[in-house]
Amino acid sequence: MSSIDVGRVRDDFPILRRTVHGRPLVYLDNAATTQKPRAVIDALVHYYENYNANIHRGIHALSEEATARYEEVRLKTAHFIGAPGPETVVFTRNTTESINLVAHAWGRRYLRPGDEIVLTIMEHHSNLVPWQLLARDTGVKLQFVDIDDEGRLIWDDFERLIGPRTRLVSITHMSNVLGTINPVKDIAELAHSRGALVLVDGAQSVPHMAVDVSGLECDFMAFSAHKMLGPTGVGVLYARQGLLEEMDPFLGGGEMISRVLPEQSTWNDVPWKYEAGTPNIADVIAFGAAIEYLQALGMDAVRAHEKEITAYALEALSAVPQVTIYGPREAEARGGVVAFNLGDLHPHDLGTVLDRHGVAVRAGHHCAQPLMRRLDCVATARASFYVYNRLDEVDTLLEGIREADRFFGHVATRA
Amino acid sequence: MSLPEPELDELYRELILDHYRSPRNREPLESPTVVAEGYNPLCGDEVELRLTLDGDVISEVSCAGRGCSISQASASMLTEAVKGKTLEQARAMGALFTRMMTDPEFTPEEDVGDLEALQGVAKYPVRVKCATLAWHALQDGLDRHETGA
């Protein structure tokens, strides 16, 4: 039993009242982005109506208020992920930018030709392409951990690949396609014992379960506000104490400097050394409201709720013989993401039918083309759940799938 | 509860499903004059057109590929529509079809054959790129052929 009162939660999300093609909206695309509660929308409006000002530089009342609210959210974020202090939290635009920051500021400073980075075949393009660019420029070698038939990472591959030249292991905490929750603490222990650092892509984990960066002992953690009820345009990079101080700056400009001379400059203290230019003040402040909302629900309750709905969806989808489900069969081993296909019907055709039922799912390669190739499919449909989803919305999803099966039945089995 | 069958039927006309189920000119030509590939990275739809030219007439055409019903049916219809046409006529048909896809109010005066069945796609903006994939590939292929690139 989940302890989330879904009815009350739904009342907090204005968008859930709308209809799509005459049907109530069934929003099952939460791994792409989540909806926003009234409190987050209000925080945005409240900032713009009452204390809109640039931060860290004005000596007037509005700037002081805005600066205080902005920095409060940094502290709140640090608490939320179990980070030791606000100086370990950098605000970026999104997970992608957070990872690119590490690739530039850490990678280009410390890595040498022949050094190795260990990734996995299930990574999102955001935790792959930045390393490809780094490899191209520095001669670093990329290596990939494979998956087994149920979409779990193969432990022996880590044992085999993490060697003396490995400088970084960069892995997703939870696959945005397979849903697999990876044993990042064990991986971090192994990597550290062999002298490598660990970056965790937490884009799909931080929004959905209690994540403690200190307990996981990761060196970097990246995630996005918009996937956890917050606004778009805010990402987070956590870096273990000491790392940000040693690394190079990423972007240069205002705010990130200390003393600027015509020919050279010195850098601001961390984390501001990594926040060049005017940051996304309004959205960071509203992100604070999203964190508070999740904290009030409790992350263990969020996880329990999603596990219940995922188990229900796995069972319902398994009952349709033409459906192929990707990833672990047990809800315990995965987050609230279920990728599937109906026969060999292209997921875009399925997605169009579901859309007519008011059901929003993702259909495509989910920014994970190497994984799609590994699974030997062009694309999949994907349903992903969050705090406001109900079991009966899974029923609506299934109703749409059966409708698509009836409509395309004679073509979907085409060899 | 009433299901949205009429709307689906409007998009997925029987003729489209027929081309998807039994694509025409599927066997790749052995020694084509022009090979044109189209790829949509958003959804993974792929088409490969092969043309044999006799002067400026498209004498043979084949299309292979994989993807959604709209992209594959449209490619199949393309092969029938341009076979025996001059390059200029094929380009003109491509322009006409693009207009059909981007302007839901537009109905061509010319007879466009099976392509008429795709008219409903214009009302589904996210699917237009599926329908135009093969036609863009054709255009690119002819451009490259004519510039010798």
Description:
The complex is a heterodimer of chains A (415) and B (149). Chain A is an alpha/beta fold. Chain A folds into 2 domains: 131 residues, Aspartate Aminotransferase, domain 1 (Alpha-Beta Complex); 255 residues, Aspartate Aminotransferase, domain 2. Helix content of chain A is 40%, strand content 17%. Chain A is built from 14 helices and 17 strands. In chain A, strands 4-10-9-8-7-5-6 form a 7-stranded mixed beta sheet, with helices on both faces. Chain A has a 4-stranded antiparallel beta sheet with strand order 13-14-17-16. The longest helix of chain A is centred in the C-terminal third of the chain and has 22 residues. The two termini of chain A are 43 Å apart. The model of chain A has no long low-confidence stretch (mean pLDDT 96). Chain B is of the alpha+beta class. Chain B has one domain: Sufe protein. Chain: A. Chain B is built from 5 helices and 3 strands, in the order H-H-E-E-E-H-H-H. A 3-stranded antiparallel beta sheet of chain B has the order 1-2-3, covered by helices on one side. Chain B is globular. Chain B starts with a helix and ends with a helix.
Classify the helix fraction of chain B into a percent range: 40-55%
Major sheet size, sense and barrel closure of chain A: 7 strands, mixed
How would you write the strand order of the largest sheet of chain B?
Answer: 1-2-3
How many structural domains of chain A? 2
Structural class of chain A: alpha/beta
**CATH topology category name of the largest domain in chain A:** Aspartate Aminotransferase, domain 2
Largest interface: A-B, 22 and 23 residues
> Could you tell me the mean pLDDT of chain B?
90
User: Which shape of chain A, going by the Cα principal axes?
Assistant: globular
Distance between the termini of chain B: 57 Å
The CATH class designation of the largest domain in chain A is Alpha Beta
What is the number of E strands of chain B? 3
SSE arrangement of chain B, N to C: HHEEEHHH
SS strand fraction of chain B: 15-25%
Give me the number of helical elements of chain B: 5
Strands side by side in the biggest sheet of chain A:
4-10-9-8-7-5-6
Q: What's the end-to-end separation of chain A, in Å?
A: 43 Å
CATH 2nd-level architecture of chain B: Alpha-Beta Complex
